[in-house]
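FW: tagging you since you asked about this chain on Friday. Here's the raw sequence from the shared folder, copied in full. Didn't touch anything.
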Amino acid sequence: MLNKNFTTVLCGFLLCVASSNQVIAQKYEEIQADSSYIWGIGIGTTLKAADQAALADIIGQISTQVESNFERTVTETGDKFKETVNDVVKTYSNATLNNTGRLIIEPNEPSIKVFRFIKRGEISKIFELRKFKIIELAHNGELALKNLQIADALRYFYWSQTLLRSHPASSGIKMKCEAGSEELLITWLPLQINQIFINLSIKMDTVENKENYSNYILDIRYKNELVRNFDYTYWGGQDWSNIVSGKDGIGVVELPKSETNTEIRLKAEYAFENEASIDMELRDVIQKLPQVPYKDSYINVSKASKSKPTPVAVNDKGKSLNSTGTAGTVHALSDSIVGPEIMKKIVSAIESKNYASVQPLFTEDGYSIFQKLLQYGNAKIVKSFDLKYYKYGEYVICRSIPMSFSFKSNNRIFIEDVIFYFDKDKKVCNLTFGLSKKAIEDIASNDTWSEDNRILLMCFLENYKTAFTLKRYDYIDKIFSDDALIITGLVTKVNISSDSRYANNTIIKYNRQTKDEYLKKLKYSFGSNEFINIRFADNTIRRSGKGNDVYGIQIKQDYFSSNYGDTGYLFLLVDLSDTLKPQIHVRTWQPQKNPDGSIYGVGDF
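HL: got it, structure written out here
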């Protein structure tokens, strides 16, 4: 009886297999005979290899069909033109083309046979996702330019232009700009990039002569306003320098005294090829297409300037944190309990790299942070400065020394403002990197909060930023509550049905993590990166109705590290009722805003 039942089941299974194979074969033959389809066949020793071969077959046919549309964006001729077009179309295969129809004709290794197919009329739809990204990047560039984030504006405009060059309908793609006009991106994007270069003004601010080199401090403006950020390299006589990330209108050029040219040659960074790795699609396109040269990205700066002495710390009494002086009531102390003589000793120690000489001026924790900060790249004081002192509870805050931090192995130089905290014994107990001037002014000018609360919010954000930059795992562990809600966003692809195959298949997948899970991943990230640098912009802070000292902080975050980078939106719900022990109850991160333009906020929790 058992054998009879087994035979019946086996026969049924074989009939099902045969029936299934018959259906596949019938559909396979029907599609091949239907001229409304483009199809490709791939044979390989594995399913992946066979599938890629079938996609390559389709890509070659699509390339032939759309190559005439690329005449304005691909400059090569003859066989090289066809090869480049084929390479550009291949950049779609990692996303939309993987959602073409697929039949597995022969499933058994080592001769797997895959059949891929797509309706000819649907070809234009595979380019829709890229069109959406092109327009989104252009909008991001507009916003960045409005906020004087010149590095970000150039990055977004150029990335948008690069993806546009990979689109067969590039000559017809339009965007409605903030001003209300509708513009053709093929002419509008290069115009925006060139206009940035034309309206940039870079002049020599000061020259500080060191023992073996000269330190040239640049004043960087856009339409006569100090820029928030600007990335560039400079010619050192034999090669171009690492990328320098200027901040708040300050740039730095370090040249040997033997360099005798009367001008410094700068090149504005606009392609940001290394950062493009955050988006596989963008990275692939940048690798396939030659870079567009912008001759106006080269800027000559005269060296003519009066030389200034080594920085001297001064107590700038009574000035507002708001650099414009038009708003905000966070004022410096008229008489500091610290006194500038302590800071003069610290500045001298940094300049001479004789750090141990000032160890008695620090607490144990303060000196540990001081050492970490000085080990964060090759630390140097950038320019002359004035120091201001502010009261913060029982502490005095000294703002700030502009310093540069270079990472030669990763082609990066960052400029940061370094802030010192003094305890009641006049010893340095903490150091942080400062926010941008614009971020500070946004907080300082909010008269609905007390002056103490405004300083408290600045200090929290600066400590938070610095904890990640200096990899202070212990501090991050303390500021997250044990039951913190931590949500991270991830761009992913959804498996879609055949009837919606060409819809926008990018979704944001949100992962909830426990504090322990989040910190475990963070510890791994700290260990695998030479450096981490964080920029904050566009902050919105609201006090929660659930408590007077609970705040919701929404902020745009640019994250850079030696092996990864991203841009996204951070939300923190933080309890600052205990000024010495802030507690983060909610942390969310999302790579882009919600469809209605919002991000996570106080109302969501």
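FW: The domain at 29-126 is CATH 3.10.28.20 (Endonuclease I-creI).
HL: agreed, and DSSP finds 13 helices and 24 strands in the chain.
FW: great, closing this out.
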